[in-house]
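Field reference: "sequence" (input) and "structure" (output). Example, N-formylglutamate amidohydrolase:
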Amino acid sequence: MQRLSVDNIIKKIEKEELFEAVSEDYSFTLKIDKYTHYVCGAVHDGAQFRRELWDNCLHTQYDRWFEEDPCTKEFVNSHPIVMAGCDSRFEYDLNRDPENAVFETAWGKQLWKNPLPKEQYNKSLEKHTNFYRVVKALISKLEEKFGVVVVYDIHSYNWRRWDREVPVINLGTSNIDNERFGKLVENWRVSLSELQLPYTNETTSKINDTFFGNGYFLKFITQNFQNTLVLATEFKKIYCDELNQIVFPEVVSAIEEQLREKIPAHAEAFYIAHRK
């Protein structure tokens, strides 16, 4: 893996070079093994939290882990194009718009003992800006090359918050073109419902049951690109013990192994249905 500036990452994309890189400030990674019509994203996978913020933060490392999406990059890391955040969403949230990306409060609790100095705020926001510069360059290149693109926007969610039964997988579709892409959304839902996972007899998958696809990653791509479908795909955190901060590697592995087949199969069906 190379360490590259954002400008150099964009130049490599424009030249259609194959590479694996971490951004110069270590805020995100991008792997391109092959230029293809689908992308996997894990914007909340990261847990880094830079040292200068520690003493001012009221949330513990466990509080942050509980709200992050650990292992979501691992779910999709075998695919040819994977983009993932390295930093904790408590520093800045890649799935929120720039005006709301740097939190003052997080999940009902004040985040900082004292307001962030402007310099620290701007440093976090610059990382958010740079990530989306690369997203724009990447999707531009793929739409130019393939005509249509599908993005698998992988997340996880805390099921213990809910006082009712919630699905193992939720697809959020409220901000996509359901009239145009609805059939392929349903195909994705059905495919995910067929996952076979340890410790559960049935993998339920529903649309807009717990989350509705309101994230900025989806909105940014959807609003800037007419021919790219983003599938906001949320896994219930059955792959870890949320209360004791333990990851179950056998469940993570089962998800990764099956997505290794399911994602390319769905992406190919999408491409056949929607290519120009």
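The two ends are 35 Å apart (CA to CA).
The chain has a mean pLDDT of 97.
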